[in-house]
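Researcher: I'm comparing several assemblies side by side, and this is the next one on my list. It has 606 residues spread over two chains. Same procedure as the others: predict the full complex and return the structure.
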Amino acid sequence: MSSTTAPEKLSTNASFDGELVKLSAPANSLGGLKTTFNVFLPRQALDGDKVPVLYYLAGLTCNEDTAPWKGGFLRDAAAEGIALVFPDTSPRGADIDGEDKDWDFGTGAGFYLTASKEPWKKHYNMYEFITSELPSLLAAASLPLDLSRSSIFGHSMGGHGALTLYLKSLLSTSPSTKYLSASAFAPIANPTQCPWGDKAFKGYLAGGLDEGKQYDATELVGQLKGKDGVDLKVLVDVGTGDQFYQQKQLLPENLIAARDAAGFSASQLAVNLHERYDHSYYFISTFAPAHIKFHAEVLKAAK
Amino acid sequence: MSSTTAPEKLSTNASFDGELVKLSAPANSLGGLKTTFNVFLPRQALDGDKVPVLYYLAGLTCNEDTAPWKGGFLRDAAAEGIALVFPDTSPRGADIDGEDKDWDFGTGAGFYLTASKEPWKKHYNMYEFITSELPSLLAAASLPLDLSRSSIFGHSMGGHGALTLYLKSLLSTSPSTKYLSASAFAPIANPTQCPWGDKAFKGYLAGGLDEGKQYDATELVGQLKGKDGVDLKVLVDVGTGDQFYQQKQLLPENLIAARDAAGFSASQLAVNLHERYDHSYYFISTFAPAHIKFHAEVLKAAK
């Protein structure tokens, strides 16, 4: 990998006594394409404290701005003194034929994996970007972050990303980033068994669904069974009014079954179903305070 | 005016234990054009209580969705048990030549006035719509709202709208809607003296700037001087990092001078300047909790 240079600062917005900083950098893992991400720094960070980091992965069609705008996360992150990092959902501008044809594949739909199939493998590597290159870029930006205390959460495709990046870090002996906790709003919890995941894995991966199992939260929980010293700190919220839940794109029931089969408890991997709530950011923002609190307790205890 | 028929319900999103309802109706005051607005109903309303109403007027280029998405208002409104009503910023689809040419005039820029100049006077009547027809539509929708307890707030052009609708209701002996309090984020506080207001008033009003004085918060505060029994309940927040403040589009200093000249106190009309904050919803959401609390105290005391 080429050496990491400091990202360019595009803008700063004061918010909740801290600030939201927008940064941009070419990413080696994305074939050299420029990518943009937002970082919320709480007051404590502006005053020079190294604060823990909570990554947020957004869902299909979204970008790095969606959650800062609509998630309602900054207020509680400010109160807890933790930083938030919002990357994009895919590379932009790879100029691949068909890249912009569908809303659930290509641009805005990177699925947080490392592509192994042409013509995607050069650019569509959000897994590598998030777990490895993004932390290097944050370090190169000289932001007051304690990257050794990182957690991750996300929505829908990003909920899938958050769960899988966390679970993969537990399965690895030397993860690029070790996440201390994970949470998800309406995650695609068993992508090898649903239409969105089927399309993504067959599209991006030379090995198709079989290769996709390493990016499937339900599969990964099964792989953790009996592994010594593994504790889980996972929170999942899903609305039963969610059309994608009803269409079996999310399949939290499979994640629950895998958890139970692997011998993990509901307090290690909590899956809460909520009547009436849908897939929108109106759902997310409602449960945002609980998710920030969940991660803040873990991150602050790790100091 | 034709009789008011019940608005059509377009969608419902559960949020913060309440729900956001999107409604649509043809508006007589907007030349019969269909307009869309959002209503947030807290849990108390879903349970059948008649809750007080806080109207939010959005700024240039925005619509009825901007603030529900980005404002961070629903959480505190839910906690306080007050409803929020989010109308659009202008009529849509009047099909007037030049209507979509500029971002600060025409579509998305209704300026909360009653147009008196051709070709705008048939449709561009957001003042009449907000103060008179919208409450009738809310009543016709049979929502559990106590419309006798209404307050109003807004941002930028909508801050101008909130302040002027409130102040005009104090000056009127029989206002269509009597607002109990008003607040504004970065309002255009003296539009007859700034480029945005100059363009709007000369464009929409046959009497130009002179007619525009009745839609100018700084002018209206002056008119309230010495009026018996008038109390003010107004809160204004402005960021000094706001480019439009710096460009003299907002002129809160003129509002302060008018307040002082009219003998009102800073607790009756508070104008707070905040370093670093800009014109964005990152600024608004930061001060959202304080604005909701300000109105909730007034609205709940009025029961």
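Model: For your comparison table: Chain B has one domain: 8-301.
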